[in-house]
């Protein structure tokens, strides 16, 4: 392990330095931008081979309608075996401490990352092509629900503890971009099948809300209001409040799991106009150092105002 890590420090020096400058406290939060330790990959390699054999589509335990078997096994391996590798952390620390990278890496979290990468590879090679061929919308939703549950529970083995996310059943945002759900965005046909399944399920739920026998009765909120003005001016039916609850409680939370294209981040100095100094316009944090300068509108903000005044 020590030899592999020392070699990787040399081979991936630029990537390690970029991670150190990113300010992220843990490699798992940076996704592909943080090199996955080769030592962790080697430790997880026999298990990855076993997962491919055990959960291949042709295997009895690889049934497409039971994603919980595959994902539950990966999760159990990360939860049970990861902590048993903690004794290696001191050795990893001794290799990394000279380069200030040791704070970003923990061997058990890297082991969990390696297992999750193995799961993503099996999704690409076996599961998602089979799902696309099956063309079963309910099966797509079953897999998406299982993947969401898997990612929520994998946050702890990956070293990210978010009590709020756990209570809400959410995947912590730092883990979402490189999650197993992100694999669905790698091919257009997979994304189309997933979104089609979500759309059909939402349409079915909406139809049930709009066409039930009590859909257009007074909404429950009206019974809590005694003012005549409320009853005259605001008369929402049951369907209206039910649709709002469906959107806020079910549909919108699922939207955050849909893979989004990468958006390049603008430099901080180009995002915030603040104060003008003797040398020109100061942006972002530089504005704090130019506190003595007089405060004026940024040209980018002042131009629309001047145009409006002229009109």
From TrEMBL:
Organism: Monoraphidium neglectum
Transmembrane segments annotated in the record for this chain: none
One GO BP: regulation of ER to Golgi vesicle-mediated transport
UniProt name for this protein: Uncharacterized protein
CC per GO annotation: Dsl1/NZR complex
Region of interest (Disordered), ranges: 279-311
Compositionally biased residues, Low complexity: 289-304
